[in-house]
Amino acid sequence: MDERRVIHEITPLMGNDVLYIADRRKKEFTYPIHNHEAFELNFVEHAAGVRRIVGDNSEVIGEYDLVLITSPDLEHVWEQHECHSEDIREITVQFDFRTGEDTLFASTPFISIQKMMNEARKGLSFPVGAIMKVYGMLDKLSSIKEGFYAVTQFLTILYELSKCEGATPLASSSFAKVAVEDDSRRILKVKNFIHQNYMDEVRLAQLADIAGMSPSAFSRFFKLHTGRNLTDYIIDIRLGAASRMLVDTSRSVSEISFHCGFNNLSNFNRIFKKKKNCSPTEFRENYRKTRVII
Questions:
Q1: What pLDDT score was predicted for residue 263?
Q2: What span, in angstroms and rounded, lies between the C-alpha atoms of 252 and 274?
């Protein structure tokens, strides 16, 4: 028995199956936190007040919610929380599309979809404008009886979503265990160094030297390239690693704090609460409540 284990869902996709579509009406969310091999696009309607957890991200959703998840290890759940709707609609599409250099998705017409699915390894939440753009197609997807046309309809949905702006990554890279990527070799070298050394003191001069720039020029370059200042980036990496340890280990909050590079426990608690809207202890307890003893 282990209260920290996540249910690994065995999806209905079998053999040569490509899509599994579940379109249902319900009054509450009861399924516990889980992950699964299949990719998933999950749409929720009329469920304001539901709490959505994807990795170390926790948000209370509005009337419409649409999330794409393409990692077999990223745990997620939609919890009832403060939702009082009597007519929740949930459309879940689980799919098995092979992606990579030697697949159809590497070709030019599909490149934006492949990029989006790569980003969705951390979970990707779409804005209302994007949801409305594909709403009609999602609404009719489960009624399409011919498999070929269902697949082409779903590919169209993915394509339209891949062209929309404003999609938001949910889990942090360090929590989701997603490899660091970047178009800039300088920034990539710096990011890799931070990911390997976040538990120690990371100095600006040290990173600027790795990039071959002066500290002031590097700070501007990093902010211009990533849209975030260096301090915030390092804190987010440390918080993601700390969140993962809170979920996966029984170490004390103090131990985790120091292991992840926070040399002051009260500072760790303050930053964690500001970023996650709960204390480290509450975060751990919330995860344990949503897990099932197996």
A1: 86
A2: 20
